[in-house]
Design goal:
- By secondary structure, the protein is an alpha/beta fold.
- The protein has one domain: Peroxisomal Thiolase, Chain A, domain 1, CATH 3.40.47.40.
- Helices cover 32% and strands 21% of the residues.
- The chain contains 9 helices and 16 strands.
- The strands form 4 sheets. A 7-stranded mixed beta sheet has the order 1-2-9-16-13-10-11. Strands 3-8-6-4-5 form a 5-stranded mixed beta sheet, sandwiched between helices.
- Strand 1 and strand 2 form a beta hairpin.
- The longest helix is centred in the N-terminal third of the chain and has 20 residues.
- The radius of gyration is 18 Å and the shape is globular.
Amino acid sequence: MKKGKQSVIFQKDIFINDAASYVGKRESEGNLRDYFQNVLQDDLMKEKSYELAETKMQKMTVEKLFEVSGKTAKDFDCIMGGDLQNQIFATSFCAREFDIPFFGLYGACSTFGEGLCAGGLFIESGNFKNIIVVTSSHFSSAERNYRFPLELGNQRTPLSQWTVTASGAVTLSDEKYKDFAPKITAITVGKVVDFGVTDANNMGAAMAPAAADTLKTHFSDLSRSPDYYDAIFTGDLGIFGHELCAHLLSNDGITMPKTFSDCGKIIFSEKQKVFMGGSGAGCSSAVFASYLFELLRKNEIKKLLLVPTGALLNKDSPLQKQSIPGIAHAVSIEV
């Protein structure tokens, strides 16, 4: 049921029965080390390129999802997802390994949120019963796509973030087939918001206005306050972007609780020296599929608002002096 400008409250149950993730070695050494069960010891994974390595990582994540769900490819109506490579190379090449209808998505680092929104709407329509949502990112493939060749050894700026090598996947279903299965109860589809940020090394500043806009709209559309949720996590604003988002909301009269955090902000530890934290299409999906899913399982939180965020630039737009638009989608998940 449509609520307000951009939100939907689901009338059907949209269950998240299963979750799986893979992360790189650096990610496994950060703050969430105890929650990442599947760790890559080699970022290249014996492949000829980092792009193919990311494809393999995403494929392994989907296969792990089959394992934990007890289901096979034939049980799913579709797989939807994306990554940060040109033409979502990793996800398309992953999907060709499975005999499942495929929807390729691109919302930069917000793609996981886009997938949860779209998947929920598909199931709400009654035409789909079981859906896989998967996203990934890889530090090395993203660096040479958006920034510089690794061999060049460029210095990183203080406001930069580290693209995580990670993949996360979940199953969405209209039936609960596990003892524990939180539900997606509502979504707010974000708008493209551009505050004129042109620094491609400061993604947090580019995405924070979109995150603030989506959060403000979510609370308004659903007549909720931030205190309705036990935890609110944005996707990958990082340290600076997270603080900026809270500041923008404060200017609009919304005070965010101490339970307001960010996946990119917490994934790495301070001693790892990644400046503003993690980013990437695999950031929110991997953190949700491991850490946040476990918090829900343990009943440490019962109401979660997940807001994956994305910066909608490509490798050419900064060179053409264009500003960086942002996007964010909010997904309400409850036990």
